[in-house]
Design brief:
By secondary structure, this protein is α/β, with parallel strands linked by helices. The protein has six helices and five strands, in the order βαβαβαβαβαα.
């Protein structure tokens, strides 16, 4: 399952990504926000992180810089969130670090780049290379 959430700065980009997910019949749950009204991002980032862990899913967070959401998500043991600026970085983060949450910087990337990132995130698998498994185990210990 895919979970998605944004703050007010990421609202428009979230809506466009949700539309693309729906068009492609990719199941997702939207945790909000549901308007451009100023809000605080920690609440939706926490909800999404808990859902990713509970359902062994993947998460897409969106805020102005991507950083705040990633910081919140990474407070949860078992979440490995990365700010994703392009598809190449996202592929490497999935293959090497088994990220389960991406955080998109809505003020710095466009819809096309965001969709390339989401597509790379959803289609790339963890490499299961011994060195990467060892490092993730170190992170989680």
């Amino acid at each position: 399952m895919i979970f998605i959430a944004a703050d007010h700065a990421g609202f428009d980009l979230k809506e466009k990504i949700c539309h693309k997910l729906a068009e492609r019949k990719i199941a997702f749950e939207d945790f909000g926000t549901f308007s451009r009204e100023p809000d605080d991002y920690p609440g939706v980032a926490k909800q999404l992180s808990k859902a990713v862990l509970k359902h062994n899913g993947k998460g897409i967070l969106i805020c102005g810089s991507g950083e705040g959401m990633a910081i919140v998500a990474n407070r949860f043991k078992g979440i490995r969130a990365a700010v994703s600026w392009n598809a190449r970085v996202t592929v490497e983060a999935r293959e090497d670090n088994d990220i389960n949450v991406i955080s998109l910087p809505a003020r710095f990337i466009g819809v096309d780049t965001a969709w390339e990132i989401v597509s790379a995130f959803l289609s790339t698998s963890f490499s299961y290379a011994d060195r990467h498994k060892r490092r993730i185990k170190q992170i989680d210990s």
